[in-house]
Structures are given as structure tokens and as C-alpha cells.
Design goal:
The complex is a heterodimer. By secondary structure, chain A is an alpha+beta fold. Chain A is 24% helix and 32% strand. In chain A, the strands form four sheets. Chain A has a six-stranded mixed beta sheet with strand order 6-7-8-3-9-10, with helices on both faces. Chain A has a five-stranded antiparallel beta sheet with strand order 13-17-14-15-16, with no helix packed on it. Chain A has a four-stranded antiparallel beta sheet with strand order 2-1-4-5, covered by helices on one side. In chain A, helix 3 (110-123) packs across helix 4 (139-151). Chain A is elongated, with a radius of gyration of 24 Å. Chain B is an all-alpha fold. In chain B, 72% of the residues lie in helices and 0% in strands. The radius of gyration of chain B is 27 Å and the shape is globular. The chains are: A alpha+beta, B mainly alpha. Chain A binds chain B through residues 53-55, 74-76, 80-82, 84-86, 88-92, 101-102, 104-106, 135, 149, 153, and chain B through 203, 205-206, 208-216, 219, 223-224, 227-228, 310-311.
């Protein structure tokens, strides 16, 4: 069963209206979609998720689940399941009792409860751990128990609040992969909150980039990466972030991987950039070249990322001829930070 | 030998780097521990050993010379039916008080944990009974429960629920109930504050997860909140038990164990025998009966605390 979650004109203020955590958000998921809320800490993404869950009351606006306004419904009546950042497992209950808890609240038949709990546990590969207490589990196992507890009631919507942030870096990558496959299998609409752009890019069907309580851009990962709506999105996503060079009241933006030695830029229309190299880093096969870009705009420190396939010798202290494919240039208004019309940058 | 006494320049200690007294952890530890060690020895260990000694002697207020009496004193104490009455009363008094203190403390803690205007003031009011000196509050209750001038009776009379007087402290059953009520009134705030600390320590996420999981108020209360505060509530219960078990102030001020020993407890009986009656040996022997139970309670408290750490 796939269901759409929608928020309209949502505002959430704290401390008697002085702090706006969510400041006018309109957002709708598509059926069975994996929607990621991405933003720096304090951008309001968790508050937005908690408002959808019913743990916070919106100051203004509406939350709709399956077309129904649910503002006045308590969390338990919303047919949602949430996985908390801390997993919030019940420490005094064993794994089976944890998973069964939502079913007990539904007054489901005892045998049916256990049958469903085992089904969820098998799906997540934790059926051998049913007798353990949460404190006897590793971080990854706890996360799966939390997922099983969310899954077992067959909710209309999954809400996940940074479920991978408590795992170590290595485990995070494999857990991310598992999460994605898991969602594809159950096909439930999922809203996922994270501050980690790699998680967002890897998991999301669409990404909503948030800053200071507002959605700055909503779109598929490719679009958010290639066509950022403003300078915030351009510099928040990408590692290293997009280079922004001031020129005539605009910013000329280009991704580090598009700034290449001139012989590697083959397009008919290219902007050449004399590049004074200051420092080179080797990172997993790529060369990150730091230096000052000239001619394309005001002299600005930028980064170029050269893949291993580019073997042009580069030395620090020298000026090399680099270039960017003109089709890769993005333009932003310097005053508003929003996308602006392209201007000719010369060759 | 000459070479050993002249220091090499490199080894010379810098004058300002000299080890200060405060840098010496071992010495500091001894000095900081000393006051409490002296206190415990002088006011706990010595009286306790003296009490054991007296219990096996025939010391009285009139004849303080020590003669070994073996188990005679115990035999005399156990032969007295008042002792058995006091022992039974002590258990009744403790068990009923403890249950009431924990249940009421739990309810009070739930009220105090809620967020409302002026909660600071309400918390202060709730703690007052515990902060008032026992002797003072017991005397106040003595007036409240007075056989003739009791304001409680006066109110009941004026509402029309009562003719004459209740004689709160004058009838055996009522006297026991009064003593328990005053004790519960006094210790409930302490239990409430202990349980409050436990409630506040429950992570907010767990409470919220239970709400999202579909649990209503009562399910959250009985399946999440109470199990998670159980170790703390156990500590509150055991504290309540110890303080009730050893308390004689309330009993002594309100009833002096009367009427006809119906509210007599071990602590007050030991005092009446040993100090007022001058039979120091028997007072000590009666008081020693408190020891095994207190020991059990202390072990139980320490175990509950350890469970809290594991959780």
C-alpha cells in the first residue's frame, strides 16, 4: 500500500514564536517514494519529520497523510512508523518484545504477533537475536531491531531520523545499501532525514535540501547536484563543493571535476582558465588541485579534481592552462544567490 | 661518596615545580577520608559494639557496672508479650507505610514531572514535610489529632459528619492508622523526589517511540515508564522502609506506644525500656533485633543501585 505524505505551508515555531525551526514548507512525496530531507544541523529537517510524525504540533499549516489532514491526530493514529537516531529501543525488553510492542498496542492476536515479529526479524536477518536485550547488541543490530519494530505494523509511511549516524563509517556504507534494498522490497513511502550528502545522494529518489527552515531545492539527486537552485545548494552538496567565481554581479559556478587541463576538455565551447597551482592532494586516486583561477572572473581560490585517467603532470607554483566546458558552467545572482541567466564567459 | 652528594645540574629540581601537597593524591585521599572515618567510628561503630556488649550484660541505669549475663537479657526481652506486640507492629507499620509511600510518591512524581506554570513553587511545597524537623511536625500533628480540640474533628462536626470526637490517638486501630498517616505524609516527598529523578532520566526518545508505536497513556505507563523506573522506585521503597523501621519519633511524640502498646514499635520499645525504664541491657537487646533487617535492606538497596547501572 503506497501513500502520499504532504505538508502545506508548514510553520513550526518554538519558545513563544521567537525561533522558527520550520518556516513555510510545502512538500509532497510521491507514491512509494524515498524522499530524503538533507541539510546542515539546525536546518529544521528533524522538526519537519517530527511534525509529520505528530510528535510536534505545527504552528501553522497542514500535514496530510493519504489525503487526510492529520494535524489533530496523535502519532499512533497516523499509521506511521519512525526510527529514531538513538533507535530508542526499550532497554528492559528483549528483541522479540521490542518488535512485538506495536502489535500489542494494536491488540493483535498473540500467535499472530509472534508470527509477524519473526517475519520481520527474518527479513532483517536478526532472527537469531530475539532473546537478547538491546544493550547486548551492536550498533548495526540495534538499527535492524529498530527497523523491524517499524516494519512489523506495516505502516503507510516510514520516517527515518538519521538512522545511520550512530554506526561507524565502514558499517554505514553497507547499512545504506541494505536500507535501500529493504525499501525497494517493501515499497513503502519513506521520508529519511540526514545531514550526510553521500547518504542522501545514494538513497533518495528525490532530495529536499533544507536550510534555515526552508526547502531550497527539491529534485532527484542528479538534478540537485548538476543544477543547484542557489549557491547554498551548490556549496552544500559536492565534496569538494562547487567553485564559485565572482564576475559582474554574478557567481560563475563549476564543479571541481569539470575544471580540467585544457586538452581534456573537448567540447566546442569551452572557457579557458589559467590556473596557478598552490597545493595538490591525492585522495583515493584523484588529484585535488588547489590554486587560483584567473580570467573566468575575479581571481579566486578554487579546487580542481582530476580523475586518475588524467595524467597531465601538474606542479605546484606553476600556472597551467585549464578549462571548463561552457555547458557545465552555472550562474548565480550575487545578491540573492539564486540561479541567473548565463553570461558569455569567453574562451 | 662525594660524587653521590653533589647533584648533577640536569637533575636539579626547578623551585616552582616542587610537588605541592595538593598534588599528592594518596595523602589527599587519607586527609579527606579522615573526618568521615572518625565520625563513623565514634558515632556508629562504638555505639554498635557497646550495644552488643550491653545486650549480653545486666547493666542498668542504677548499676552501670558490667557483668556478663549471657543470653539472659534476651530471654527476659522475649518473655515480655509487649516485645512481640512491638515486633508485629513494626512490620505492620513498615509494610503499610512503605507501600503507601511508594504509590503516593510515584503519583506525586508524575505530577511534578509535568510542565506547568509555577511548578517550581509546587515542588517546593511538596518537599516541605520532608524538610520540617520530625519532632516539630510530629508535635503539630499531635495538636491536629488532639482528642478534644482536634481541628479535623471540628471541621467534621461543622460539616455535620461527626458528633462528639473521633479520639484519633485514643483507639488502637485509629491510633495505628494515624501514626502511619503522619509517617506517610512525612516520607512521601522524599520518595517522590527520588522517583522524579528516575523519571527525568528516561530518554525522551523512548517515550516518543512508544507513542509512535501506538501505545496510549496507560500502556506507556505500565510497559515503559514503570519498568524503567523500577530500580529507582526500589531504592525509594527501601529508603522508606529503613527510615520507617528505625523511626520512633512519630510514635513516641504522638502516642508513646499507646493506647495499651497498640502502636508500640521496636525502636520506641527499646527507648522506653532502656532509657526511661533504666534497663539499659534490655533496651540494647531489643534494639539489636533491628539489625538483621536493616542489613538485609542495605544489601537490597545496593543491589537495586547496581541494576540501575546495568540498565
Amino acid at each position: 500500500m503506497t501513500v502520499v505524505v504532504e505538508v502545506r505551508g508548514l510553520v513550526k515555531r518554538f519558545e513563544g514564536g521567537r525561533v522558527s525551526a520550520v518556516d513555510g514548507v510545502d512538500l509532497a512525496t510521491q507514491e512509494g517514494e524515498y524522499l530524503v530531507l538533507l541539510g546542515p544541523s539546525g536546518c529544521g529537517k528533524t522538526t519537519l519529520l517530527r511534525t509529520i510524525a505528530g510528535l510536534e504540533r505545527p504552528t501553522e499549516g497542514e500535514v496530510l497523510i493519504d489525503g487526510q489532514v492529520v494535524n489533530d491526530l496523535p502519532p499512533r493514529a497516523r499509521k506511521i512508523a519512525m526510527v529514531f537516531q538513538s533507535y530508542a529501543l526499550y532497554p528492559h525488553k528483549n528483541v522479540l518484545q521490542n518488535i512485538v510492542f506495536p502489535l500489542k498496542a494494536e491488540r493483535m492476536d498473540k500467535d499472530e504477533q509472534v508470527r509477524k515479529a519473526r517475519w520481520a526479524a527474518e527479513l532483517l536477518g536478526i532472527d537469531a537475536l530475539l532473546d537478547r536485550r538491546p544493550r547486548q547488541l551492536s550498533g548495526g543490530e540495534r538499527q535492524r531491531v529498530a527497523l523491524a519494530r517499524a516494519l512489523v505494523r506495516e505502516p503507510h509511511v516510514f520516517l527515518l531520523d538519521e538512522p545511520l549516524s550512530n554506526l561507524d563509517a565502514k558499517l554505514r556504507t553497507s547499512a545504506r545499501d541494505e536500507l535501500k534494498r529493504f525499501q525497494e522490497r517493501v515499497g513503502t513511502t519513506t521520508i529519511y532525514v540526514t545531514h550526510d550528502q553521500a547518504e542522501a545522494m545514494g538513497l533518495g529518489d528525490r532530495i529536499a535540501v533544507m536550510d534555515r527552515g526552508q526547502v531550497r531545492q527539491l529534485g532527484p539527486p542528479v538534478q540537485v547536484y548538476d543544477d543547484p537552485a542557489d549557491t547554498f545548494v551548490a556549496t552544500f552538496i559536492g565534496s569538494p563543493p562547487m567553485n564559485l567565481v565572482p564576475r559582474d554581479g554574478r557567481f560563475v559556478g563549476f564543479r571541481p571535476e569539470h575544471l580540467l587541463p585544457v586538452e581534456h576538455v573537448h567540447g566546442p565551447d569551452r572557457a579557458t582558465v589559467p590556473f596557478q597551482v598552490e597545493r595538490i592532494e591525492y585522495l583515493s586516486g584523484d588529484r585535488h588541485v588547489y590554486g587560483t583561477a584567473t580570467r573566468i572572473g575575479e581571481d579566486t581560490r578554487v579546487v580542481a579534481r582530476l580523475p586518475a585517467t588524467v595524467s597531465t603532470p601538474i606542479a605546484t607554483g606553476e600556472t597551467h592552462r585549464f578549462a571548463v566546458d561552457a555547458g557545465r558552467l552555472r550562474f548565480f545572482d550575487a545578491a540573492t544567490g539564486l540561479r541567473a541567466d548565463p553570461v558569455p564567459v569567453g574562451s | 661518596m662525594e660524587a653521590a652528594t653533589t647533584r648533577r645540574p640536569g637533575l636539579q629540581t626547578h623551585p616552582r615545580a616542587a610537588r605541592r601537597f595538593a598534588d599528592n593524591d594518596r595523602q589527599l585521599a587519607i586527609w579527606f577520608l579522615l573526618p568521615s572515618v572518625i565520625y563513623v567510628i565514634a558515632l556508629v561503630a562504638v555505639p554498635f559494639i557497646l550495644a552488643i556488649g550491653f545486650a549480653f550484660s545486666d547493666v542498668t541505669a542504677g548499676d552501670p557496672s558490667f557483668h556478663w549475663a549471657g543470653l539472659d537479657t534476651f530471654r527476659r526481652a522475649l518473655d515480655d508479650p509487649v516485645f512481640w506486640r512491638a515486633l508485629r507492629n513494626t512490620f505492620v507499620f513498615t509494610v503499610i507505610s512503605m507501600v503507601l509511600i511508594v504509590v503516593l510518591g510515584k503519583i506525586l512524581a508524575n505530577i511534578l514531572v509535568a510542565d506547568f506554570r509555577g511548578k517550581w513553587f509546587v515542588r517546593f511545597l511538596v518537599l516541605l514535610p520532608w524538610t520540617t524537623p520530625v519532632a516539630l511536625s510530629a508535635v503539630a500533628w499531635l495538636w491536629m489529632l488532639d482528642s478534644v480540640y482536634s481541628p479535623i474533628d471540628w471541621v467534621l462536626r461543622n460539616v455535620g459528619l461527626l458528633h462528639g470526637n473521633v479520639y484519633w490517638l485514643g483507639r488502637p486501630g485509629l491510633a495505628m492508622a494515624s501514626v502511619i498517616a503522619v509517617h506517610v505524609w512525612r516520607l512521601t516527598p522524599l520518595a517522590a523526589v527520588i522517583i522524579l529523578a528516575g523519571l527525568v532520566a528516561i530518554p525522551k526518545d523512548i517515550e516518543e517511540a512508544a507513542r509512535v508505536d501506538g501505545a496510549g497513556y496507560w500502556r506507556r505507563m505500565f510497559e515503559v515508564t514503570i519498568p524503567l523506573t523500577l530500580p529507582v522506585a526500589a531504592v525509594a521503597a527501601l529508603f522508606g522502609a529503613v527510615l520507617t523501621f528505625t523511626d520512633m519519633t512519630v510514635v513516641y511524640v504522638l502516642t508513646r506506644g499507646g493506647p495499651t502498646n497498640s502502636t508500640q514499635v521496636l525502636a520506641s520499645w527499646a527507648f522506653i525500656r532502656g532509657i526511661e525504664g533504666g534497663d539499659v541491657a534490655q533496651g540494647a537487646a531489643v534494639a539489636l533485633f533491628l539489625f538483621p533487617l536493616l542489613l538485609a535492606a542495605a544489601i537490597a538497596i545496593l543491589r537495586a543501585v547496581r541494576r540501575m547501572e546495568v540498565l
